[in-house]
Amino acid sequence: MTAEAVRPVERAEAPWWSSAGAIPGLPPILACLGLLVIWELLSRWYDLAGLPPPTSALPQIPGILTDKEALIDIADSLRRMATGFALALAFAVPVGLAMGRSRHVAAFFNPLLMVIYPVPKAALMPIIMLWLGVGDASKTLVIFLGVTLPLIYHSYQGSRAVEEKLLWSAAAMGLTPSARLVRIVLPAALPEILVGCRTGLVLALITMVTSEMIARQTGIGNIIFVSLDLGVYDRVYAMIVIIGVLGFVLDMIFEYLRHRLVAWAEPSQSIVVGTA
Amino acid sequence: MTGRGSAILDAMIGFIPIIATIALWQAVVMAGVAPPALLPAPGTVFARFLQQIVSPAYLEHAYITLYRLFFGFAIAVAAGIAFGILMTGSQAVAAIVRPLVRVLAPVPKIALYPAFTLTLGYDDASKIALVIADALFPILLSTYQGASAVEPKLAWSARAMGLSPLKTLFRVVLPAAMPSVLTGCRIGLIISCIVVFLAEMIPSTDGLGHLLMRAARNFQTVDMFVPLITISILGLLLNAGFNALRRHLLRGFAEEK
């Protein structure tokens, strides 16, 4: 979100809180504190066993992060997510780029993608489990499926918008069509592909958690539901906070990388959301 | 290449992968590579789908799913548009909401679902809460982005003609930002559709997602495909319906279809 958002209604002068926004990182921290205060108040107000206060849930986090089994679970989850994401990247980007450069390729894939689009990918988990078992293969496949569509879509949009003159110049200089795809289309479409990657990252996290909630064997989702079944609610909430922080941190790392890679392109959107 | 002829050709090319997928599915079944218990024939699945779609018990579950979907989606639309518009109009609202969105938007909402079930119970409320949490952010963000890009002169003119700031926001800025708002709503609608199904798959007693899990527990493979097909067709229909509504609402915008 740009700082220079147009204000249709003019303001007399900058109020005191806008100076707090000038310090980078402070508003999100204040937002986190605010959420914790609301959580504390809600838990005191309702006094439910199912809603422990943050003061009893948060101290669980160091315990979880030093517990060897929990760490193995978290590492398992992250490994599956990275594998699924990498496979999706290797498959989706070439398909998307080809769709953007050839009308026939686009016509070939578009209806199929339109049909697949509203299928809840994580809901395929029970069927895929029948074929591939409850292990890594089925969970990785579900993550792959969840991430592929936005990646194809954004690569397609990116390569479709490449300036024709760039391609003509490259052709005039004697580049072969495949070399043009790698050396002109791919870099030109990179900012848009990275927008897709960011959506994909959120989706990978969501499908990862969901797949583990359905096939409870290892992983982060498994820890949550085992704790839920045992009635250790502090631990459930601690895990939710850990997953939330994980999502936030991955997003921040990605933003940093994106900034390094394509600093020449305007960020088209600073916050991307998505779902499985 | 003339326009009409190539459009028909494109449509025909587009059917190839869909038909090929179904043909491959049929071929795998006929070749006996996978036993029917693992992969039923496409014909069996579609016959079962047609049989279920007219059965009252099945429709009851579908109705519950739809009710949760629309209840949650409606609240997400109202809250998302209201906050998105107010953020453009007031620095105070923006200063509070923007960091909250920055922190909450990348969080996988499905992880909140256990917390929702603990506090709101296993009935409708927790599923509706999850739909709201997931659909809210795309609607809010695209409303905010659309409203921020509205020509300021429009708002100034309205103010000069004596409209109050709040009325200016909702009667001038909101209609002008409509294309972007509707894009957000469309994403939110598909998300709601998917999320409500997922929420019903994790502990639940009714709804289409529950039917899928029940079939999975009983190894009724055919019945596992039917809810999935239903929710996908529902998503396609909602998407098409929303596009029709969008064309109607945006008939004044020259460049939008």
Could you give a short description of this structure?
Chain A is an all-alpha fold and 276 residues long. Chain A has helices at residues 16-20, 26-46, 54-57, 60-66, 68-101, 103-116, 125-132, 136-160, 164-172, 177-214, 220-230, 233-261. In chain A, helix 5 runs antiparallel to helix 10.
Q: Mean pLDDT of chain B, rounded to whole units?
A: 85
Number of helices of chain B: 11
Contiguous runs where pLDDT drops below 50 for at least 5 residues of chain B: none
- Mind telling me which CATH architecture of chain A this is? Orthogonal Bundle
* CATH class type of chain A: Mainly Alpha
Give the N-terminus to C-terminus distance of chain A in angstroms.
24 Å
Shape of chain B: globular
Number of strands of chain A: 0
Oligomer: heterodimer
What is the radius of gyration of chain A? 23 Å
Shape field of chain A: elongated
What is the structural class of chain B? mainly alpha
Total helices of chain A: the number is 12
Estimate percent helicity of chain B.
Answer: over 70%
Mean pLDDT over the residues of chain A: 80
**Largest sheet of chain B at a glance?**
none
The total tally of domains of chain A equals 1
Give the SSE order of chain A as H and E letters: HHHHHHHHHHHH
Number of strands of chain B: 0
The figure for the number of domains of chain B is 2
